[in-house]
Input
Amino acid sequence: MSGAYKGSIWRKWDLHIHSNASPDSNLSPSSIVDKLIDSGISVFSITDHSTSNNIDEFYEIVDQKNKNGKEIHFLPGVELKTDKGDKSVHLIGVFPNFTKNGQKVTKKYLYDELLSQIGCTEAKIKEIGKEQLGDGKEESEYFERGQLEVTCNFENTAKLIRDIGGITIVHAGSKERGIETEMDHADNDDPNTLLNSLGHKKKELMNNYIDVCELTNWNEKNQEQRRFYLSEFKKPSVVCSDSHKLENLGERYSWIKGDPSFEGLRQIKLEPELRVSLQKDNPSESETFIKINELEIDFPEDLMIIDHESQEKSPFCLSGKYNIGISNNLTCIIGGRGSGKTSIAHILYNLWPEKDKAKLTNIESPLASLDFHPNRLSKISEHTIAKVPNSTEFFFQNEIELFAKNINKMSQLIRLRLVKLSGLEDGSTLTDLETEWLSASQSLEGITNAYEGIVSYDSMIKNHEEELSTLKLQTEVIKSEDYKKYQSTISELTGKIAKHKTYISEVNNLKSQIEELTSMVEILDWLPDQGGSLLPELLDQIKSFKAKINAAVDTYKTKYSEEDNESKLESAKSELRGYLSKRGISDENIHEIANANQRISELEGLIKSAKDEKAPLEKVYENHVTIEGEYKEAYNKYKERINKVSLSLQEMLKGLKISDKEISFSALIDYSILKNELIEFIKESTSSEVSLRTDAISSLLFADEKNIELLIEDINKIAEVVDKSPYKGKHKQIVQESIADTVFMNQIRLGLIQHAYDIKNIRIQTKLGKNSLRNTSFGERCGIVISIIIVAGTNPIVIDQPEDHLDGKFISEVLVPLIRNQKLNRQIILVTRDANIVIGSDAELMQILDSSKNRSDVIASSIENLNYREKYIWILDGGIYAFTKREKKYDI
Output
């Protein structure tokens, strides 16, 4: 990508540099500019004492450097000694390159309009020269070089600087003196502070005549001073080099976010919190959140859009090539109706890896009507380029409205924001804790299944043993040795057949597991130092053992087939029938006894198998206390975390009021699922012929809401709860009989644990003031939704027309402050026509869609770019008012 214009970005500025107006080659204008370029300074101002002698030469040098591919910008300036303070407070005037009527601010202009009027005249030069240098010196030379300082009246000078369009920067004139940060000490006689130096009118002077305060460094003391000036007087502060030597250039500077122009500098008066930063490193390096950098569009020039009703075609407004930059912070896409501003958001969505392919069609996006075939969205992707991170969020027109209309969807949205927010704070994320809970839940499910298996096997074994006992009574009537031999033979053959069937089943299961293991090993992509070199050997061994097992199975099958046990069993049963017939036993009894002997052997095998299969389940269930404890712990950790994150989200929204009420969150536990599951289990598990009613069981167990907490604490108290219930009738007796059964009670206990500690029970209750969501107005819910989606997250977010359904007061008092704060932590892209959002939020970049014949031009601009202000001021609703309001904010 080519690096599109990104709007207001951080640049190094040095607004206090001395050239001494000297022909000295070590400090010539050319050497100063070269050193500034090498130091990465983007904007500088020459501020010699009481003179503007070298300004014209700096213009020429900077123009030449920029023509040669360098980037350096120059603002004319001057430093003036004032009549405030024992050692004087100094005023710096920094000026635009051109006046409002287009006149260039040159050496002559500054002399005529400012310097001569504050006493920088030939007569004053001689007077100062005699005083400072004595007779016989070349006073004019020293003056020209900025080494003679004319003392001027502070108020008049500051007013003159402003009258001719400049900005006033004030400092104490001594690097050794700090700036006072406590007003309590400002009236003493100590001249070592700027405020003291201003005298008794310090508040008036600060408020009425000073635009910017100059500090000496980036250290914490100066940062404290900066915060003081910001809070007490709404004044920005800068750090400058105040350099008189070439080697000092580039050592101290300020970071200013804005175009490299005087209007860019002027923004620090309007946005002192957002537009200036005092530190060594680029502030943008702290913007480590993920971003969309730019969007390239290359549609055919003749691309058409189809009206689905009339099938008429018309030119698509974004046909052709565009390179659209996106600010790291706040980008506002603005334009008139039909200019394509929403289409840009939809194009980004179409490039999003997580997109819902049907969404653009469902919301009737213009993209879904483009004359592209056969697959519109795929063709659009082929003609557009942007790296849109997976975590990007999109909220299109009316989607916020849909959340506000559907309370359940809104609750889901809030929960999702809490999940995102949990990843921004210290501690485990809610996603990680949910995974941990799911793992514990699976372990608990294993315990529950193991117990159900044990119960099932116990029942099976009991039934088999009862049947076996009956059959043995039947077959043991005959005591002869011949009969016992027949019984033994039948038992032995039946056992062999049963073992064979079990063996074949186990072989098939083992083969299936070997195939799964082989597949798992084959997909591993381990490096050599991770054990990757062992994988081929492991596969070879698996293959070898598989072949050996197959060979062993084939050998066994051949041997078993040769034994022909099934035929031998039938022969043995036939011989037994013959023997019994000779004993005079009826045909019916002969058949029963012959089959009973075979069944006895089968049952003995089934009982043994059941006990063998039950044993590992009992081993699993032995750990039930530990696993139940881990499940409860995982639930409590999730519950504690979601409570903490809810409070964090509430704190983020603190002070932001909707309808003069604040948003609050609290975690509530909803046991309705638990109650329903418990009731259904009791209904399904009782052996009574009476059909139990849900309402009757509910009255028995949950007539008192406290009972649910009581049962969660100790399920053994269920008998106490049922006995104390005033409910009378057959239901009570049936339930009392059921809970007397140990197995039934243990099943109830496991089910209670499972559902009582299910994180789905944790519900986030959102309130506006004292009202729950259901008792808020539609507009209030829209406000809650937009506030939450902007606050929670550091991922890019794209919102189409967030101002819909929001009143002006909410936009100004809630939404704008939110955006101003959150754009420092995440990339925000807004499609909007609301000037308060664009101007009040101090958008770093505006992409202006200007309709021109059959297509739209996309013009990138910043708020401080005066060239395009008339182009977009009419597009924004309340544009002029928003600018006026912004100026009045700092009494400008």
